[in-house]
Kynureninase (Aliiruegeria lutimaris), 397 residues
Amino acid sequence: MTDFAWTRDQFHLPEGVIYLDGNSLGPMPKATPARVQQVMEPEWRDQLIGGWVGAGWHLAPERLGDRIAAMIGAEAGHVVVGDTLSIKIYQALAAALALRPDRRVILSDTGNFPSDLYMAQGLAHTLGNGTRLKTVAPEDVAEHITDEVAVLMLTEVDYRTGRRHDMKVLTAKAHEVGAITVWDLAHSFGALPVDLAGCGADFAAGCTYKYINAGPGAPAFIYVAPEHAGRACTALQGWQGHDAPFAFEQDYRPATEVVRMRVGTPPVLQLAALEAALDIWEQVDMNDIRARSIELCERFIAGVEESCPQLRLASPRDAAQRGSQVSFHFEEGYAAMQALIARGVIGDFRAPDIMRFGFTPLYIGPEDVDRAVEILAEIINWDLWDRPEYKVKAIIT
């Protein structure tokens, strides 16, 4: 049974802040500074370059990959950490397309995170062989999975609305027509139970700075199913993915299995922050996290709809079809969110009119939900958002 009082105590949370933006950047675990400091001194300070072996830096991407694999229902030895999520999506997509050389269509949906779509567009342009990206409405994906599709590329949970795709059903449908699947877990990992092997996923990638709380810019990870790992195309042939990186050969030879998906030198300090975060996650049960998440989201929806009828629910009403976030449409959503933040309730805004709230049970409880609803109601019902300073768009929203 997960002890949510214990998990809350593991995080640094500024006094007076209700943090409902962990689906964008998680707060800092209290153990992180000490773990990062350990890498700097004594490891880096005393071992210098010897830390790559003596402190285990070089193998951290595989070691942490195995810890993540256990959290996402993946086979050990088939997840590796490093680089950014966009790069990992690019790698997975390129490898998936190479497995279906006679097909040219990448199928995704209009709710997918734009960076994933940009990666697909860029790769299609680079290939120059007629490969194209096709996007359809999220609810229409299943009917467009046909035998012309090479790759089905989807984010399991929509970043704006929290709408959840059925990974198992859509993967099975893709396999029925011979397509390969690439799943983006950015808003799934740490938010709900994921079972990649059980769903038969081919490739998946995710980030660690949202629900996992590994810090800004924390590295991504990639999963390659066992049946593809030994032959997956390595579109980005970085030296860390070479079978013998320190032989410094002139020609590329991919490493065996998922290690071939390593690209550049791993970010050791950031990996240390990830390690500290995973120490917390290994003390919780994802089923408990999911149950508490649903409870908090339902409580928030009920409270907002009762007290703020001006807001319209943008997320699915059925909890089974929703991730761990709740979004509402409001014409003045940007200004309202700035007013909320000014009063200590931190969520975020997504164009054109979506107020987005993330619920992370590790550090958010029912009392936080009730207080956030109360403050939101005051702002909406008294038009407290209607001030010039709240309407000035920042670079990051």
About this structure: The mean pLDDT is 97. The longest strand covers residues 149-155.
